[in-house]
Amino acid sequence: MYLNDIIKSKEEVNILKKNVLMNITYGMYLVGSKYKNNYSGMISTTVCQSTSEPETITVIINKDNYTHDLIEKSKKISISILSTETTFELIGKFGFNSGRDTDKLIGVNYIMGDNDVPVITTSMTAYIEAKVINSFDIGTHTIFFAKVTKTDNLDDKVPMTYEYYHTVIKGTSPKNAPTYSLNATIESNDDNKYKCSTCGYVYDESSKGNIKFDKLHENWVCPVCGMHKIGFNKI
Amino acid sequence: MYLNDIIKSKEEVNILKKNVLMNITYGMYLVGSKYKNNYSGMISTTVCQSTSEPETITVIINKDNYTHDLIEKSKKISISILSTETTFELIGKFGFNSGRDTDKLIGVNYIMGDNDVPVITTSMTAYIEAKVINSFDIGTHTIFFAKVTKTDNLDDKVPMTYEYYHTVIKGTSPKNAPTYSLNATIESNDDNKYKCSTCGYVYDESSKGNIKFDKLHENWVCPVCGMHKIGFNKI
Questions:
Q1: Distance between CA atoms of B233 and B29, rounded to whole angstroms?
Q2: Judging by beta carbons within 10 Å of its beta carbon (0-12, 13-18, 19+), is residue A187 exposed, middle or buried?
Q3: Which end of chain A is more exposed for a tag (fewer CB within 10 A), N or C?
Q4: Domain residues for B216?
Q5: A173 falls in which pLDDT band (50, 70, 90)?
Q6: How many Å separate Cα A120 from the centre of its chain?
Q7: pTM, whole model, 2 decimals?
Q8: Burial class for A226, CB neighbours closer than 10 Å (0-12, 13-18, 19+)
Q9: Bridge partner list, A157
Q10: What's B109's domain CATH number?
Q11: Angle B23-B55-A50 from CA coordinates, rounded to 5°
Q12: Distance from chain centroid for Cα B29
């Protein structure tokens, strides 16, 4: 079994310079699926075209994600390609909350795809519909190999890269993402900033209108993911 | 067999707007392998991290590539991450020639990896060594799923994206790449330019020092891939 082979020792982990993997380029995608009446969507960086004849894509998803379950059952995928105009709030809604607990379609624009999966259109550049042909077990994640069944443009915007998200929007990866461990390499010497341990949202005391973090109401929660104050760390 | 399922009709092809898939973001990588004394390397856009515990990557490669054969036999991969300083000539050397016919190590700097596979270092940002754990057949291509065994930085350069390659360096995809069909969407109304059908190199008559294409010597060949004049088309 290959799963046994991929367990590696602590020593092996230590020889990897994790920031090297930050040199791999990714885009930002909203991957959705629907099974019966249940829809969910999530933010993914690991979408790529895999063959051109026929046109297929691969999407790599953590098994813990609700969207993973829905794709496994329905074999249907919708992918919206984020633009540089996509807000941190929308990313937070889809990236740091589970579709098991919340209705992710509330408050966003979407169209119903030909494959009966909602396609989120708010601030997206284009979308892809696909049907799973095969799936490959790679331990914590599954590679879904899917045939592209429809593509269309939504707006003439610039696709968002992970680099842009990381440096401009200042987000971090959720715990289930393949790139999660990269977050450990992000360091900051800024004072007066507190980062949400769940979604990466940063509360900056020095921003106009903000009060001291210690003075925030005890019921205050992270505006992106709803984490309580206790889940924030000074950075 | 899933391979039968992925054959689609002409009608299906026609409903895909191919330029949509250009919205997917890729980086540029030099993927190499070595089996016994045979080395080859090629340019790939389809490298991504697939899990973080342990750290693994997936690399998607066309079965026609010599590098594919070498990876299949040796299970060893070296990946150099291209920078914006990587030249079109280097990309042409690795992207549009086969290691079956040429010694790709001539004229480039490289170090020998811990896994005994040469790692090209000329104008690269960083490199990754990996060992194949499993491989998945997806028709024209194979997905190699590999454990990262070593990573290191090479230089403080900016990683090259496919977008950068496409718009700044003005290259096109080789015929074996997953993104090959995207080239069909590139149009130009420029006069006096001739594009190599093999590698995408453009001969521009108006460039300083260039003569008319028709006046080029009959033995003149593409400076990047060696294609003869007959392989050029006016664009």
A1: 28
A2: exposed
A3: N
A4: 187-234
A5: low
A6: 14
A7: 0.75
A8: middle
A9: none
A10: 2.30.110.10
A11: 30
A12: 7
- A58 found inside a domain: yes
Question: Percent of chain B, pLDDT > 90?
Answer: 49
Give how many domains chain B has, as a whole number.
2
Task: Answer yes or no: do B204 and B165 share one domain.
Answer: no
Question: Is residue A79 in some structural domain?
Answer: yes
Residue B225 lies in a domain: yes
Query: Is pLDDT larger for residue A11 or for residue A169?
Result: A169
Q: Across the interface, do A27 and B27 touch by the CB < 8 Å criterion?
A: no
Q: Do B52 and A181 touch (CB under 8 A)?
A: yes
- In this structure, the answer to whether residues B223 and B138 fall within a common structural domain is no
Name chain B contacts of A145, Cβ cutoff 8 Å: 136, 138, 143
* B positions 186-225 inside 8 Å of A (CB): none
Instruction: Report the chain A residue with the minimal C-alpha distance to residue B130.
Output: A16
- Residue B46 Cα, gap to closest chain A Cα (Å): 7
* pLDDT category of residue A189 using cuts at 50, 70 and 90: very low
Q: What is the predicted pLDDT for the residue at A6?
A: 40
Write the burial class of residue A231 (CB in 10 Å: 0-12 exposed, 13-18 middle, 19+ buried): middle
Q: Is B158 on the interface with A (CB under 8 A)?
A: no
Kindly state whether residue A6 falls inside one of the protein's structural domains: no
**AA letter at A233:** N
Q: Among A51-55, A153-157, B18-22, which stretch is predicted with the lowest mean pLDDT?
A: B18-22
CB nearest B21 (choices: A17, A25, A49)? A49
